[in-house]
């Protein structure tokens, strides 16, 4: 799959939890190859994050990378690496907005992750809107 050009969104949604971790590693390692069209950082962007399949931190990062950089996109695999991405060279730099639409109820149960995510976003001028 990675040898062909990725053009379809949500391929990661069919993967197991363990495979999603692998997906994030592959997107990280292949960022420059996969995201050829996203070479310049964008400020003040609006990103639509499809929350239908987002139920934990791993699925959030799969969806976030895709929302910002398209299919197979990368924008961190945990909070620390996402914080690095927020510094630039990964397609989006603050300030920007993320519109999380149709969030899975399971995500709301991840209170510790959500609190830490909100703190990082607040400190980095990223607005997260739940719809």
From TrEMBL:
Task: Specify the signal sequence span.
Answer: none
Where do the Barstar (barnase inhibitor) domain residues begin and end? 48-122
User: Which SUPFAM superfamilies is this protein grouped with?
Assistant: Barstar-related
Which InterPro entries would you find in this protein's record?
A: Barstar (IPR000468), Barstar-like_sf (IPR035905)
**Into which family does the record put it?**
Belongs to the barstar family.
- Its recorded name reads Barstar family protein
Origin species, per record, is Paenibacillus arenosi
């Amino acid at each position: 799959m990675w040898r062909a050009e990725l053009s379809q969104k949500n391929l990661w949604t069919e993967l197991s939890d363990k495979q999603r971790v692998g997906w994030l590693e592959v997107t990280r390692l292949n960022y420059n190859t996969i995201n050829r069209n996203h070479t310049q950082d964008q400020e003040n962007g609006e990103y639509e994050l499809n929350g239908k399949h987002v139920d934990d931190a791993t699925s959030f990062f799969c969806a976030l990378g895709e929302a910002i950089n398209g299919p197979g996109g990368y924008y961190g695999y945990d909070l620390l690496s996402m914080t690095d991405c927020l510094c630039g060279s990964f397609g989006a730099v603050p300030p920007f907005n993320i519109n999380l639409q149709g969030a899975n109820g399971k995500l709301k149960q991840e209170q510790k992750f959500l609190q830490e995510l909100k703190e990082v976003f607040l400190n980095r001028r990223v607005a997260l809107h739940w719809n």
